[in-house]
Specification:
alpha/beta; Peroxisomal Thiolase, Chain A, domain 1; 410 residues; three-stranded mixed β-sheet; globular; 14 helices; eleven-stranded mixed β-sheet
Length: 410
């Protein structure tokens, strides 16, 4: 028997702020979170000097030191977002620590400073002095998932998703499937990412970063004819997912329902996306939800402001929907938060679904004529929303599509 899957709590930390009220205000004001990273000036050959940090985030004073020794910044943000989401869901400790509660969480990698330190000690200093077991755990690709498990004493299944830009959306999607097919009753799901020069450097090597270093608040520019690349960012977001019967039995407040998810791999090129693969994953998500394309009211685009990616995604979206569906990119506000983006964007999409409005893509002055004809949002729009789709695409041809339904409509 398939179970309906609902969202009963959620929280996010992103470059726009540490709570929904702040993020909402900045979206409505069309305010960018991109800033100059002058500390990167000494890196030879690096063209970009732009990034987006979570403002004011520090290790919460109440976090027990014993529990955070194995946490880098990426895990600390994941833990704080998860703590807030659990509080919002009203999920008691006995439910969290049940074997019927699990974790599905991702990031691009372990904590970059810990990786840097480990490589420096071993590869340059030729010593393991100063490298501890705890610091090594900070470097592991599943560092967020396992740190959340020990921090909250979770005993159910652990699903680490380390798939770059789809880590957060796969984290939510695999959690949805674990509940839908009866394997778990509750899942802590999401993704996190920590800003580091290494992330910027990787995209810089591919000539994919924005170099508008003297105009940080004018970039990135998804879908725009004058875009020049992406900006890297950081953050974390967690959704508490439950089966509908479990949520109802404990009297939980339901925020939204997840009705569709799909993920696929194009299997064709490591970094060049395929419109056919993108279109296919959207159609698979629609089929999973039992929806027609005309029932989707808004598409949150992956749209990182790279030429190849924006054009391919727009073509895939147009082919799937066959109409100018409303679409915008949240990355225009806060850059590409990599392993966190799918989770942060899901969190924001559910808030939009509940409140009935759509944010525009900022800096979109002239749509690239090579992009397919869609309803590109350039101003805030009020709308009655029933279903929204959020798409993410990663290196390796990994694609995801999530569909959320407004609660209270059946």
């Amino acid at each position: 028997m398939n179970h309906r899957v609902v969202v009963t709590g959620m929280a996010g930390l992103c470059p726009l702020g540490l709570d929904w009220g702040t993020v909402r205000a900045k979206l409505l004001a069309k305010e960018s979170a991109i800033a100059a990273k002058t500390e990167w000036n000494g890196i030879g050959g690096l063209r970009t000097r732009l990034g987006a940090e979570v403002p004011g985030f520090e290790r919460p004073a109440h976090f027990p030191r014993k529990k955070i020794r194995s946490m880098g910044r990426v895990s600390l943000m994941a833990a704080r977002a998860t703590e807030l989401a659990i509080e919002a869901a009203g999920l008691p400790p006995d439910k969290i620590q049940s074997e019927r509660t699990g974790i599905s969480y991702g990031s691009t990698s372990g904590s970059p400073p810990a990786l840097e330190h480990f490589a420096m000690q071993l590869g340059v200093q030729h010593t393991i002095e100063g490298v501890t077991g705890a610091s090594f755990i900070q470097t592991m690709s599943h560092t967020c998932a396992i740190n959340l498990a020990q921090f909250f004493e979770v005993h159910g299944r652990i699903i680490p998703t380390c798939s770059a830009c789809t880590a957060g959306s796969q984290g939510i999607g695999y959690a949805y499937e674990a509940i839908k097919f009866g394997r778990q009753d509750v899942m802590l799901a999401g993704g996190a990412e920590e800003l580091h020069i290494a992330s910027a450097a990787v995209f810089d090597l591919l000539f994919a970063t924005s170099t508008m270093n003297n105009a940080p608040h004018a970039t990135p520019r998804p879908f725009d004819a004058r875009r020049d690349g992406l900006v890297v960012g950081e953050g974390a977001a967690t959704l508490i997912l439950e089966s509908l019967p479990h949520a109802q039995q404990r009297g939980a407040t339901i925020l939204a329902e997840i009705v569709g998810f799909a993920t696929n791999c194009e299997g064709s090129h490591v970094v060049t996306p395929s419109p056919e693969g993108m279109e296919s994953v959207m159609r698979q998500a629609l089929a999973d939800a039992g929806l027609a394309p005309g029932q989707i009211d808004y598409v949150n685009a992956h749209a990182t402001a790279t030429e190849v990616g924006d054009i391919a995604e727009s073509q895939a979206t147009a082919a799937c929907f066959g109409r100018p569906v409303p679409i915008s990119s949240l990355k225009s506000y806060m850059g590409h938060t990599l392993g966190a983006c799918g989770a942060i964007e899901a969190w924001i999409c559910i808030q939009l679904l509940r409140e009935g409005w759509l944010p525009p893509t900022i800096h979109l002055d002239q749509v690239d004529p090579r992009c397919a004809p869609l309803d590109y949002l350039t101003e805030v729009r009020e709308a009655r929303l029933e279903h929204v789709m959020s798409n993410n695409f990663a290196f390796g041809g990994i694609n995801t599509s999530l569909i959320f339904k407004r609660w209270g409509n059946g």
